[in-house]
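Hi X.,

You mentioned you wanted examples for the new student's onboarding notes, showing what a folding record looks like when two proteins sit in one file. Here is a clean example. The first protein comes first, with its sequence line followed by its structure tokens.
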Amino acid sequence: MRLVYLDEAGTDYKAPVLAVAGVLVHGDLEWPEIDRRVCALIDKFIPEADRSEFIFHAKDIFHGSGYFDRRKPQWDHLDKRILVLNELADIIDDLHLPIVLGHYVKDKFGAGVLTAEDGPKKRGLMIHGSAAMDCLVWADKWLAEYAPSELATVVHEGGAATSALIKRAVRVLRHPGLMTKAGMSGMDQQELSLPLKRIIDTVHFADKADARPLQLADLCAFVLGRALKDMPIPSRAFRIIWKHLKWRQRFKAIAPASSERHPS
């Protein structure tokens, strides 16, 4: 059984790109090691008094905000904080975790479907839901190619305003009749590997402290989201993440509506 852990970046209305990204984790073979190694990094970088329910937030680490306030002597230089991001990325690399990604440029999304009256909130919800759907299509494709005897369930970072939409999307993408009712019958379902065949159950929403692989999904979403906006990124962490995303290059672009451009 695989677990697909997803998180998002770029939900702020000012961000030009919204990305959802995540990692596929083998529940028996890889989950315990991820949990152990994240805990080990907490022990390594965080004083004992602060370790209870500690969470690595890539955005705070990179920008020197929150717990990693750059005004603190231990976090005053970017190089110190980049080391934390690199060691989180090393977990992905050492365990060879496949990465999935869905993303959209916000001002190009929904042309001919959404209107100015729909507003940025509705647009943001639909973009987030669509990017999450793309991740599930890619995850289903990975399972079909590399673990055809396995199924997967999905864990998304908790608190997403789009939770009902994402749950509904999974239900629709698993059922040909619901896809037809949703106006998706004209899609090349064979090319897109639809309906989903290996994503089971509903999407579960969890806190990063309770599901530590979500902290790796957070890293992926943050780094890839910045790369897609051509913003400065932690280069070593990006190279690791990109290496484990490149498995998609052997397939045609299958995400339902993405026009993906890959960072070089």
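Then the second protein repeats the pattern, sequence line and then tokens:
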Amino acid sequence: MRSYLGQNFLINKIKIKEIVDVLELKAGDVVIEIGPGHGELTEELRLRNEKFKIIGIEKDKNLIKELKEKFSSDKNLEIIEGNILKILPNLIRNLKLKAISYKLIGNIPYYITGHLLRIIGELENKPELIVLTVQKEVAERICVKPPKMNLLAASVQFWAKPEIVGYIPKKDFNPVPDVDGAIIRLTTYDRRLTTNETEKYYKLIKILFKQPRKTIINNLIYGFQNLTKAEIIERLIKLKINPEARPQDLDVKNITDLSELIYQ
């Protein structure tokens, strides 16, 4: 088992089917699978009738050998050795996926979730659809709305609409993890943001959620020492944001509008 890489293999075939169903496959799709492992999810992908390309990114050298032998006859399936956290941006460029759509799927090690989502969020050409198994509590944190917003939710919801489409009990994995899992679907927004817009948004959420129990005005006074309290309040009132509210009360639109106004 690949315990040293933090991987827990999903062994429930019904759940594997459910995950692939959520991907809404169609002919001509390009699917990148993160960590195929022994190929359980890969095999289910191959059983679908539509013709599409599968690219599996696997870190474990021993498993790569097994996968290549197992799927050697499939010309639409390619196994690439690498750490998804390091190679994904270059992979998208090298495969010329900048101009076409693709999908991302994976039963990922729970500990890479935040880092992986950050990398995806920074891609110039994001997947049109992402389906991942993640820790149940993390999936729920990603999907919250005001008044329960948090830094992770604000980061992800800026570029995608998240939805929990199912839960997976820990007994359905081998080795058994300490917590239950969830299947999360992320549908990316079809909009192009400038680097400047993106940078302003992410700078602001770091300031807002650095001390989430403090009021919005107190966090902004600390983070924008070049502005007076009166100037900050003026901007908040203009956007109909209560200065005494908490960051958790803001939605993505509130934060986006504020990032444009406060970085003038």
